[in-house]
Amino acid sequence: MQHSMSAVLRRCFAFVILTALAVAQTAEQRAARYLDSVRKQPPLLLAFLRDLPKGGDLHNHLDGAIYAEDLIDFAASSGLCVDRTSSLLIAPPCDPCENYTAKPAAQCAYGDHVLYGQMIDAWSMRNWRPGDESGHDHFFATFDKFRLASHLHAAEGIAAATNRAGMDHLQYVEFMHTADGGATVQLGMKVGWEPDFPKMRDRLLAGGLKDVVVETSKKLAADQARALEILKCGTPEAAPGCNVTVRYLYQVLRGLPKEVVFTQILLGFELASSDPHFVGLNLVMPEDWYVPLRDFDEHMAMLDYLHGIYPKVHISLHAGELAMGLVPPEDLTFHIRASVEQGHAERIGHGVDVMNEKDPIRLLKEMADRNVLVEICLTSNDLILGVSGDDDPLPVYMKYGVPVALATDDEGVSRSDMTHEYLRAVETYHLSYADLKRMARQGLEHSFLPGKSLWTETKPMFRMVAACSANPANVGKSSADCEKFLSANERARMQWKLEREFANFEKKY
Length: 509
Description:
Blueprint: H1 2-24, H2 27-37, H3 42-51, E1 56-61, H4 62-65, H5 68-77, E2 81-82, E3 89-90, H6 113-122, H7 135-152, H8 154-167, E4 172-177, H9 183-191, H10 197-230, E5 245-253, H11 258-274, E6 278-284, H12 290-294, H13 296-309, E7 314-319, H14 335-341, E8 347-350, H15 360-370, E9 373-376, H16 378-385, H17 394-399, E10 404-406, H18 411-414, H19 418-429, H20 433-445, E11 455-457, E12 463-464, H21 466-469, H22 480-488, H23 490-507
Parallel strand pairs: 1-4, 4-5, 5-6, 6-7, 7-8, 8-9, 9-10
Antiparallel strand pairs: 2-3, 11-12
Helix pairs in contact: 2-23, 3-19, 5-7, 8-10, 9-10, 9-11, 10-11, 11-13, 20-23, 22-23
């Protein structure tokens, strides 16, 4: 009997100790333990990551974010035709749907499952397999095929992409968007090339660029307003995308003639100086194509000159979206450093070839010192460059203290979303819950939203500003001093919202 009582007491004592330990654990620690417990159970891991607050997506091309199914709807509603051989959209008139005609209306795909599937495969990476066409070539070929639909339906595209971000528990997206509708191409070709940058700028401003700024702002404001209507924001039926804050990076097409590239870069600086929808600019199109390689130094010089005139405008650049064999070895050695030092990039996208740069360790330390964030695009790095796993430099950037944040790049073309970017990161690199939380925070810390940060420092730990540190986000209502600080700083408000979302998420564990 005495032995039985002792066993009961021991069990009770053990229960009390375990209960005390559980209570002593923070909510963050419990969430971290749960993540560790489901690492080898993909369905449970996916569910955990689906609900995880993810901060901001800083590398997201609007056209590439739209899923092919949505694009088919856009094309059908505009009466566009599709070339049955190439899946290229073309203007009407179209052939009838019957008898497998060469140029049927896009709406014919609704009754023709072969055509429907063909269009999705041609407009995305679905069902792509290595063979005669590389992942790189198939990926970039998609855009010309569906561009007519995305161009005619910018508002619907914004709504669709924003709503998927909301469903993904993102708070903030910066869409890259060439929003001028081709006006800069016409203006740049009309003005012509002038190698003297000040003269080139003066000619463009005198030749109509100010009008392009006004019209671009008007068009984007209208598209944004229409997107909110589509999402039913402000109504009881509001879609998840209504909870996402959207801003834009003007998207410069660096594969075009240099007079057009200069015109677009200048437009980007002007828009970001005058229109709060635009928070910066970025240069896009494949880094390995002939014109972007040939004119790379000239593009950096353009950015350097215009940054001197518009020093407050934010710049993010694709840099190092290259791999050995794609270009000659010498072209792998300087793009990232030049983008940071001469192009004034506060963030870079991809950064895959960093270890091929001259003195890469010094470059990594410089990026860490300058606090230059790398927008990590794991899925597209794999599909476009064939770089994944141990070959991707994500762990190297983290090792040297370079800030990183996951990004979707072109989730519609890639057939992915932010949750699966997190899933790939966790499964491939065994990232901890603290790593994921840091990445989400960095996505807002390095956003181009105006105002001060909620954080006084981010290395080695995130430390909150004094006005808000006494009332952390998981304690309920913030203090008067904190409310005053948040009301004056949009970036801090967004970061505070993320902390509240993390607190609510972690309570479940």
